[in-house]
Amino acid sequence: MTSDLSPATQQISTTHRIADELGVRERQVAAAVDLLDGGATVPFIARYRKEATGALDDAQLRTLEERLRYLREMEERRTAILESIRSQGKLDEALEAQIMAADSKARLEDIYLPFKPKRRTKAMIAREAGLEPLAELLLGDPTQEPLSVAAGYADPEKGVADAAAALEGARHILIEKFAEDADLIGALREQMWSRGRLVSKVRDGKQDEGAKFSDYFDFAEPFAKLPSHRILAMFRGEKEEVLDLTPEPDDLEVPNSYEPRIAGHFGIADKGRPADRWLLDTVRSAWRVRILIHLDANIRSRLWQAAEEEAVRVFAANLRDLLLAAPAGTRPTMGLDPGFRTGVKVAVVDATGKVVATDTIYPHVPAHRWDESIATLAKLAAVHKVELIAIGNGTASRETDKLAGDLISRHPELKLTKIVVSEAGASVYSASAYASQELPELNVSLRGAVSIARRLQDPLAELVKIDPKSIGVGQYQHDLSEVKLSRSLDAVVEDCVNAVGVDVNTASAPLLTRVSGIGEGLAASIVMHRDSNGPFRSRKALKDVPRLGPKAFEQCAGFLRIPGGDDPLDASSVHPEAYPVVRRILGATKSDLPSLIGNGPVLRALKPVEFVDDTFGLPTVTDILKELEKPGRDPRPAFKTASFAEGVEKLADLQPGMVLEGVVTNVAAFGAFVDVGVHQDGLVHVSAMSKTFVKDPRDVVKPGDIVRVKVLDVDVPRKRISLTLRLDDEGGADRAKAGGNGAPAARGVATGRPGRAANAQLSRLGSRRVRWPRRCVAPASTRGSAARAELASRHEIVSVIAKRAPHLLYAGGRARRPGHAEDREVRVSVTVFASGGRA
Questions:
Q1: Is the same domain home to 391 and 436?
Q2: pTM for the complete prediction?
Q3: What 3-state class would DSSP assign to 122?
Q4: Are residues 419 and 350 in the same domain?
Q5: Average pLDDT, stretch 784-789?
Q6: Domain membership of residue 797 as a residue range
Q7: 381 plus 343 within the same structural domain
Q8: Residue span of the signal peptide, if any (predicted)?
Q9: pLDDT band at 641, cuts 50/70/90?
């Protein structure tokens, strides 16, 4: 019998697999794995070990790190399974080879299922009663007559009363055998995934209470096509007891192919032999009683895992964009935390972020101290030379924005600029232990205003003080795995902090904590040393910090900057270990460091290959030359502001056709949310982002982007705003006008059958070409029921979705219509507008 894979063999297998998945050389993966195992961080490896890894970037390294974790967990599970089966005395060479060949956790569990310790089953009881030979006899020789053969196994003393009881026991044994066949279950799972669908129905009496899930009241879509946001929404609806979800293994119009596949796998067929019918009935029982239930759970788990992974990815990407948003910089800033009854909290910070003044004003209802509030703000702005006003985007934001606008118009001499910023997480920071330590003299309510002001100056430096999960840029984040989400978000924060770099003499402890090689304890030691001994004059002085040893110094030194220190290189991203390369460059150019730094013509004329040695390769030398040309470069974009429309302050103020400026607050798989200043973000669906196909909304926008959008539709009761980035799209009023004037681009008829989606081919809708038909059909009234329809597809064949129309179905359709099984055709008149607007 072969032994388990040795650690070295496992490592080779793991690196080979990861290399294939990433599309890189195995040598690159092996080097990265060795560095990670040696305690190096992803930012350090990506920036300073390019020669070793073949210049793998941080995104590739994060993927590598995640896959390495998964594969090592799988190896641990493989070892545990082998040990468990070996202890049972059931491990033979064939089984061990099968386990060693398993390439996923799911496959491992399929193989282990028959050997997994379980409660006493009916099959176990039947085996103990001596019925396994009967089961194997009937399966192996269907020419045997079941009752006749079973009579010989009746034994009342063993609990087998008669032949029928013996057959029942044999059936339980075969059902378990069928349900625990790893190859069969794996094949059936993939078949169900590719052919099945998830069906969602509203629970009786939950229509009003669960209105927000109305899109899924009668919905079905293939498993493989379900996007993550729909999966999460439906599972949330089920959790809130509004929806019933049913995984269906096949389109109901397709004959069941699962039972024949099970039968074929075990050589069972209806050839008229005595045991054939009994065996086929056993297959049916196995499918319905055991296998289908097992696969339902598998499919649900697979759907959830896929949706969770995508949701975590989207959350992480949005967080990255927010952290790397443009900083306003070192400018005196006034933070306003809006409120009505409790007043507007005011905090002024100087250019370094130090709090210099606080106050509370009451300009809104019920106090109405408008003029007094403006006078207070004007005085604070004048005394502290404020340049920017940061306004939180929560309750009373629009009213407070109007107050700031009035302040600016009354006092133009102050030259103020107002900006509405996200206040997500500000209240969490205010009540945190770190806020109490950082701002002990301030009331909790005023700390939020400080955070709002500082996050305008430097979003990254301020947001790292807040738990990333509290920043609120994810989909259904409270439904996601805490461990997976935290791990992913922590990685994003670490990557962002190290990409920008940190001024070690001004950074807060939370910011230092995120620097490569520095944890919470070491960050506190650095701050304590800085407070006791004054600012650091050189990177070398960091070695005097207690507990900051050689390894920590290696990992952090390149990311810690010391502007105005003893050595200009200490303000750059050049690692101290590479300073000898810079000295060689100085010698070659016969210049000193101050004159060389920023001297583009001289630096660009150098050939990097001339400075390569055994330690520092071409990638590192190239990076050094770029850094010398623009030392301490900030990867974040330049700061700019958005202006909300005057007079548009609440949802009811919006009208279809309005063109507004807004800020992208969140990006999901299905589109982007935009704050247009009405306390409710609007949605730009992915289909309304461009005139060309958009696969990923993040290819078009990201959180923090300033965009111009057009209002398509406003649903005040449901608090929904439909927006478009395509400013030539027609709003609701325009669409009604176009329809009323009889100016559609094309008309036609979509046909379908109950249980199927209705389809219309564009080429048959009219003589004029309609290239982008999505969201642009107006159905006629059919059988007395007005059907509201949309186009779900961007392609030639257009699926028609009819909401609240009993004779039609939802997108992806094919949901059954209760009580209407007849197969008759439904005809729906459709009008397609060339503009792409929806009637």
A1: yes
A2: 0.77
A3: helix
A4: yes
A5: 33
A6: 735-832
A7: yes
A8: none
A9: confident
